[in-house]
């Protein structure tokens, strides 16, 4: 299958977890892919294993890193066509006890990172157009008291997504911008969280029950949704929030 044949894509946080699954699926569908991450060894190894991929070190919260990555991507593959703002982090903490430092760390990666990526993509895609996919979270729609900062950071990403979609429409730029909202997904980030809870088996059952489908999702299931938003099949989809969350958002 080649649903992304010839498209040039950049995936942040592409070395692990959901980002890695998106990189693998995009490459299998014919895209030229840049894996942009702070984890170099795994990113480089993944790029070497794929037909037409490259790795670039990128901390999404640093403007200069973005400029260097986009320049390198365009020199090798040509104009950017698909950006997936996937890199993100999570930390627990309620409004009563979350440290101020966590606010800056989470907002820098999740919200500022998405902002810088969208800004660079709007300039790089310009009149040629493209698709921007912001990996948010169902937590951005249905916050949790125990993840106050994370939930707020993902709500920021959802609002940013709509602003970018509006800007592109108002300025005649053929750029679509959508958010992808995963539920609980089996990734290194989640496994770290489960390990911190002590009884991992019990945590798995509890986390699975947060979805209507009563299970934890797999990164490949998020990659399939990202593929739709990246492809021309989503040609009339912009400013949308696509939930690939097993029904997390509608669960009481
Ligand atoms: N796993 C879940 O249950 C879940 C649910 C909803 C949303 N999400 C979102 O999906 C995205 C991916 O999550 P994941 O579970 O795959 O996480 P993960 O920790 O397993 O992988 C994240 C990747 O991002 C990279 N990264 C972290 N900080 C970075 C930075 N500053 N610059 C560049 N790269 C950076 C990491 O090195 C890693 O490769 C995140 O935005 C997360 O909030 C995850």
Brief account:
The protein contains eight helices and seven strands. It has 252 residues and is of the alpha/beta class. Its EC number is 1.1.1.-.
Describe the structure.
This protein has 252 residues and is α/β, with parallel strands linked by helices. The protein has a single domain, classed as Rossmann fold, CATH 3.40.50. The chain contains eight helices and seven strands, in the order βαβαβαβαβαβαααβ. The protein has a seven-stranded parallel sheet, sandwiched between helices. β2, α2 and β3 form a beta-alpha-beta unit. The mean pLDDT is 97. The structure holds nicotinamide-adenine-dinucleotide (NAD). Nicotinamide-adenine-dinucleotide binds next to α1 and α6. The site of nicotinamide-adenine-dinucleotide has 29 residues, from α1 and α6. Its EC number is 1.1.1.-. Pfam families: adh_short_C2 (PF13561). This is SDR family NAD(P)-dependent oxidoreductase. Belongs to the short-chain dehydrogenases/reductases (SDR) family. Keywords: Oxidoreductase.
Overall tally of domains:
1
**What's the CATH topology name?**
Rossmann fold
Total of helices: 8
Helix content: 40-55%
Small ligands present = nicotinamide-adenine-dinucleotide
Cα distance spanning the termini: 38 Å
Strand percentage: 15-25%
- Global outline: globular
SSE order and pairing:
Blueprint: E1 8-12, H1 17-28, E2 32-37, H2 40-49, E3 53-57, H3 63-77, E4 82-85, H4 100-125, E5 130-135, H5 148-170, E6 175-182, H6 188-196, H7 200-208, H8 219-230, E7 241-244
Parallel strand pairs: 1-2, 1-4, 2-3, 4-5, 5-6, 6-7
Helix pairs in contact: 1-8, 3-4, 4-5
The protein binds nicotinamide-adenine-dinucleotide.
Nicotinamide-adenine-dinucleotide is lined by residues 12-13, 15-19, 37-39, 58-61, 86-90, 109, 135, 137, 182, 184-185, 187-190.
């Amino acid at each position: 299958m080649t649903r992304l044949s010839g498209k040039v894509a950049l995936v942040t946080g592409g070395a692990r977890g959901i980002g890695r699954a998106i990189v693998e699926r995009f490459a299998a569908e014919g895209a030229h892919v840049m894996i942009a991450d702070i984890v170099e060894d795994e990113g480089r190894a993944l790029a070497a294993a794929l037909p037409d991929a490259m790795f670039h070190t990128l901390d999404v919260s640093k403007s200069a890193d973005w400029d260097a990555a986009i320049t390198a991507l365009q020199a090798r593959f040509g104009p950017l066509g698909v950006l997936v703002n996937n890199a993100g982090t999570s930390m627990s903490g309620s409004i009563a006890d979350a440290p101020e430092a966590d606010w800056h760390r989470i907002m820098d990666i999740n919200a500022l990172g998405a902002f810088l990526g969208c800004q660079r993509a709007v300039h790089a895609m310009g009149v040629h157009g493209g698709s921007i996919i912001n990996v948010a979270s169902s937590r951005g729609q249905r916050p949790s008291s125990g993840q106050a900062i994370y939930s707020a950071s993902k709500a920021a990403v959802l609002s940013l997504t709509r602003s970018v979609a509006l800007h592109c429409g108002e300025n005649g730029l053929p750029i679509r911008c959508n958010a992808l909202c995963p539920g609980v997904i089996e990734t290194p980030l989640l496994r770290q969280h489960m390990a911190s809870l002590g009884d991992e088996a019990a945590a798995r059952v509890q986390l699975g029950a947060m979805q209507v489908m009563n299970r934890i999702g797999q990164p490949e299931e998020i990659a399939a949704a990202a593929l739709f938003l990246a492809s021309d099949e989503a040609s009339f989809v912009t400013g949308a929030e696509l939930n690939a969350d097993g029904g997390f958002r509608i669960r009481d």
